[in-house]
Structure formats: structure tokens, C-alpha cells
Amino acid sequence: MSTHTIDELTGFAVDLGGTKIAAAAIENGKVADVLVRRTDGNAGPLKLVAELADIARQIGFKDGDPIGVAVAGRLDSEGLWSAVNTSILADLNEQPLASELGKYLGSGVVALNDTRAAVIGEYRFGAAQNTGAAAYLTVSTGVSAGIVLNGVPLQSPNGLLGHVGFMTSRHGTRSCGSGRTGTFESIASGRAIEAKATELGFGGTTCEQVFDHAASGEKWAQQLIQDSSAAIAELCANLAASLGIERVVIGGGVGLAPGYLDRVKTHLLDEPELFRPEIVGSSLGKHSALFGALSVAVERKAKQ
Q: Measured between alpha carbons, how far apart are the two ends of the chain, in Å?
């Protein structure tokens, strides 16, 4: 699928998630510099696009450099960017992302969904190599997946493919920002963990702090992480059943938290063996989408 190795990657990438915007300068496959800002989900589309362009310039991007931009949300075949969970990205509906970014960064900018970018990064250079049916599953502010089947990173015309966090779980009862009830995102995501902590009387506790409380032996925090990891194990089994996924690469701030991956593997043992894909952690860490997005940009630039 790829015409280059990771050592040949030089350029820039930006990754906009529900919590942060990260921009990286990559030289010969190494992250040379990184800038991180918090995502203002209420900023509106025009301000978000300007923010993406500004952070790219600040990291050193110049006209003509290859640059890939990965974004949370739905990016359709026409390049129109929309939110699915409107509690994370508000007032975002059919924004012409690539063309708007082109006004700031030139016509060579490549835009794609963040988990699709991440699975491309992991499939080409990381933990999803050497498998024909892989998913990159981010468990972070939200829950979503990038899918590779037979060497092809999948996408759908409406851009909804991979938003598996909005599938429903047998354990789900809560609503989420997608408008659906009982979703995996409403149980397993970082925002869901924080919301549940608030319900239990621990308002203001961040997801990271919940993990700290769990490590200290506090039962309420341990239960929240158990609920999240059990839901993600169920989701992994669903990916195996629906798409024949053989390996799930887990990333994201929750997914890569200490001990989380082992919990998912333990819960997956409750499923029949046929529905237990291999579970591995992201080998590119928090840079999966950055490497994937830049890889696509480099590939496209080489064809021009």
C-alpha cells in the first residue's frame, strides 16, 4: 500500500481531536518538534480551520511542504467536514475542510479523518503491519475506529464509516452527543468516565485522576475503568463479528493508560474464541494519526 518507508517521511502533520490539537514537524521518520493546544469545541468551523493553519505555520510549515491534517468527526467524499458528536465539536456541519485549509496552506494540503489516518500510520509503520484485517481503535475523548481490510484503509462516501463508538452496547443506558442512547462512547470514553465520576459525587475529577484513584485502590474509580474496558472488549468482539477484524490496535489517552489494555484483554476472554481478535497497543503512541496523515500527503505529492 505504501510506496515509502517511515525513514523517508519528512514534512508536517496536524491532528485535531476532541481534547487537543497537535502539530508535528517530522524529519526522516522522527518527530523533530511538536506543538499542542487545547481544542475549543465551541469555536465554530471557521475558527477551527484558522487554528489548524496557525499551528501548522508555528511548527514551521512553509508553502510547498507536504502536510497532512487529520480531524475528528465525519469527512465525506466531497471533503465536507461535519460533527457526529455535537457535544465535542459544536456547529460543525458540511464545512469544506480541504478547500478552506487550502486558502491558508496551499493546494497541497491533505485532509482525512483522524482514526483513518491513525490506522494508515499503524498499518504502514506500526502495530497493524502484516495483517490484512486490522482496526485502530481510539479510546479517548470519544471512541472511534479506522479499518483496514485486504490492505485498503476503508472509507464511506458519507464519512460515517469507523464511528463505531456510536454503535450500541448491551451495557449501555446513557445518551451521548450523537443523539443515540446506550452507545459505547457513552460508557467507555474519557468524557463518559468523567460524567459518571460526577454522578458519583466526584465532580471536577478528570479521567486521568480517575485512573490515579483506581491505582490507589479506590473501588468507585476501579469500577468506572472496569465498565469502560468491558465495553471496549465487547466492541472489539463486534468488530471481529461484523468485519472479520483479526487485530485491534488500541490507542488514545484512555486506551493507552496504564493497565487499561490488560483489562480489555481480560474482558475479551468472556467472548467465544472466534470473536477474540488480537489486542495490541499502538506502537506509534500519540503520533499514529500524524504519521498516517503525513504518509498520505507525501504519497500524493509524489504523484503530482
A: 18
